[in-house]
Amino acid sequence: MNGRAIVILDDPDLPAMAALTEGGRLIDLLIDPPEDDPTPRPGAIHMARVTRLAPAMGAVFVDLGEGREGFLKGVKGLRAGDWLAVQISRHAEPGKAVPVSAEPLFKGRYAIVTPHAPGLNVARKIRDPEERARLTRIAQEALERAGLSAGLVVRTAAEGAAEAEIAEDVEELAALARLVEGAPADAPAELVAAPDAEVLAWRDWVDPEPERVLRGDSGLFDDLGLLDQIEALLSPRVPLPGGAWMTIEPTAAMVCVDVNTGADFSPASALKANLAALEDLPRQLRLRGLGGQITVDAAPCSKRDRPKLEAALKRALKSDPVETTVAGWTPLGNLELLRKRERRPIAELLRAPLERTARGRGRR
User: Fold this and answer.
1) Tens digits of per-residue pLDDT, 64-89?
2) In this predicted model, which residue has the larger pLDDT, 354 or 289?
3) Any idea what DSSP says for residue 222?
4) Where does the RNA-binding protein AU-1/Ribonuclease E/G domain lie (predicted)?
5) Residue 71: CA atoms inside 13 Å, Cβ hemisphere, count?
6) Burial level of 313, CB count in 10 A (0-12/13-18/19+)?
7) Can you tell me the mean pLDDT for 157-161?
8) Does 233 have pLDDT greater than 50?
9) Separation CA 43–CA 197 (nearest Å)
10) Domain 106-192, second-level architecture
11) Pairing relationship of beta strands 17-22 and 25-31 according to DSSP bridges
């Protein structure tokens, strides 16, 4: 399948998911957890009660309901028993409280409403003065109709979009913001649910716009070669050109990446393998849902090659939506990254369902 496409999976035997492909290659993957999974999901907004203070860390712990605990930093003046609305910031490491923010954002396809950050801004990528003025007017009028005094960011996807669609998006976001703003302390624990995979795909996979959107069951995913690509993500080994490979293995402390040249012992083999690995690493981490500390044990190479490797990695990260910092090289010659935990590891969500589906297709 040529071009850029979104493929939505609708199959009772598998979790709902959305796949982004380019030329048939899997670029991104969003997976919904089971409906009965209590794990807090990034983007959800909860009414939370402060349970205990952690002044040494400048933080408090909050009760998110159903026995779930959140960790809130940088907010002063709170006392045990206080209620406030918080938004899940990211996934937590196993056994740890979930990081939350006391400044919820309301994100749509065309706009982001920011109640705690006043002002109206248009994405810098939109440079045409007339278009910027049009979008500013649409956003201002929509906020006024919604009766909301809040900040707003007009997203890049709004460029050229119909006025009615942009206004509708802003008004829906404003309605959610008003709901949270007026929620009483005894409101249901989850005020605003996290968007599901299909909504996230519609909202975020817009630059560039996909050429087609397909929907089907596992048969469609199989016909497009997506099931094989997704199953491969459950293996730590990632093939690279020329017989090289890398392994990506999460541990309790970090994600370890090991690059190997395979049977190629030519002088340039290590550099080629390392470049290929680092160019594909952001995609692999994104698809596997891995974050936190990432340590790359590169194939042996000289220090003069390190700038080339860092440049290749940073180029690949430019198109990656997950916040990642390249920390640099350790004294032992490993390359370290710090990556936001925006997603659940794919192994937690898919291993059992995919194995059942594979057996049903007679492939194992």
Assistant:
1) 988 899 999 998 899 999 999 999 99
2) 289
3) H
4) 107-214, 215-341
5) 13
6) buried
7) 96
8) yes
9) 12
10) 2-Layer Sandwich (3.30)
11) antiparallel
At 263 the pLDDT is: 81
Neighbours of 137 (CB within 10 A): 11
* Per-domain residue ranges of the chain: 45-101, 106-192, 234-346
Q: Does domain 45-101 have CATH number 2.40.50.140?
A: yes
Tokens of 141: 């009028």
Burial class (CB in 10 A: 0-12, 13-18, 19+), 307: exposed
Strand partners, 249: 256
Phi, psi of 83 (to 5 degrees): -110, 145
Give the pair of three-digit tokens for residue 167.
């206004």
